[in-house]
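Entry — protein

Goal — fold tokens:
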Amino acid sequence: SSDLLSVIKAINLIPAADRLPLVVIGEQKKVLYREAIFSYIAEHRLEKWLIFPNSVTNDDLPAVYQGAEIFIYTSLYEGFGIPVLEALVSGVPVITSNVSGMSEAGGPDSRLVNPRNIDEISTSITELLGDDELRGEMIQKGYLHAARFSNQQVTTKLIDLYHQIIDI
């Protein structure tokens, strides 16, 4: 469960000249939360800064990752964080949560933030977008970190996550 509203509020803190559009992958299933998101977007005139693709398949994800400057995954409750590893393998610097399994998935060179701290998220986005050298270092080290996870480790983590989801 991502805290998308916090990320959108963080983007609103960044001066328009320093922003990049945010591509939001995944549907917000809770109606009231989705309404709060779109209400905030309209109230702050952020429509041109947010892209909600109609559908993104698993086959589309590599292209989405590789077209990104930063991958933001501020999940509140997550098992392990396979999307974080996918982003790292795709050569994208990661901003993720300092909760749950995100720090393990992201590794020591991802930017770990409190998923509800709007200033922290905004500052991290601004710092990464403004520092090519830092982004390059994060990409290199992130790729090496992600490569440490074997298929067996990832499979075991996924099975554990599925067991949690279906409550076996």
Q: What stands out?
A: DSSP finds eight helices and five strands in the chain. Strands lie at 22-23, 50-51, 71-73, 94-97, 111-113.
